[in-house]
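Sorry to interrupt, but I need a hand with the structure work. Could you write out one complete protein record for me, on any chain you like? Could you add the entry underneath, on a fresh line?
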Amino acid sequence: MLGFLSARQAGLEDPLRLRRAESTRRSHPDVHKYSVETVQWYPHDTGMFTSSSFDKTLKVWDTNTLQIADVFNFEETVYSHHMSPVATKHCLVAVGTRGPKVQLCDLKSGSCSHILQGHRQEILAVSWSPRYEYILATASADSRAKLWDVRRASGCLITLDQHNGKKSQAAESANTAHNGKVNGLCFTSDGLHLLTVGTDNRMRLWNSSNGENTLVNYGKVYNDSRKGLKFTVSSGCSSEFVFVPYGSTIAVYTIYSGEQITMLKGHYKTVDCCVFQSNFQELYSGSRDCNILAWVPSLCESVPDDDDETSTRSQLNPAFEDAWSSSDEEG
């Protein structure tokens, strides 16, 4: 079993962080007017970060001065945005709004360079591939998830089909990823697979190269979010896990088997988002209880001793076992 402990409320021990947080409260002249939906560091430099909001704006911030460097204004409410973690040839920010078009904003020019058309309803989640800098995944309230190559004029590469093209299925669900809104997606750390969640209380794992539904069964994955659901995957573990907000808890599943490992309990209200930090092997979660919790992996876990049911012994959590083997052992 994967063990996590809620170590602390993130950042409370750091007085510098507290002072900076103080300076960006509601009295700040550049603060967003409505709910902030997404915040992301610039992938290559912590001197800049971006935020988007229901106030129909995407803001680019200078970390050192906490002043706005640029603002992108939209006609619709902004649900999600994302910058590529691996791009070296473009500085595009993908933006999902209440409209059916995916907007691509260029940080270099300061304008929206072009749009991707193909969805029929609002765009609830967007995510760039961590493997290919021009591949983008989008999720929509039209029950569809799409993969795009933003260099192509036609744009859309694949529309994910939960039935894998079987014509015997009902016509109304053809070429749909879920039987409800698709309101969250996340690539695996190697970019070879894509996870999606929907309001049909299902999570699906897709082959990102051909769009095939791998049919991994995660069981019921509770999801009543009216907007984007921000979930995340592990990186650097011998087994790969996905962390999904599940009411006031966080459900942890093994990605490729679908097994639910545990439920992380610590928040008092609905969890809206979580993110995994691979350098420290920590998970951070944000909730409507106004707390950010840091979850630290338990390297050792207690298991019953075979000889004495009342005693326990410790063994290394399998998620952090050394996956390397010597040539002598293989021989």
Summary: Residues 26 and 32 are 8 Å apart (CA to CA).
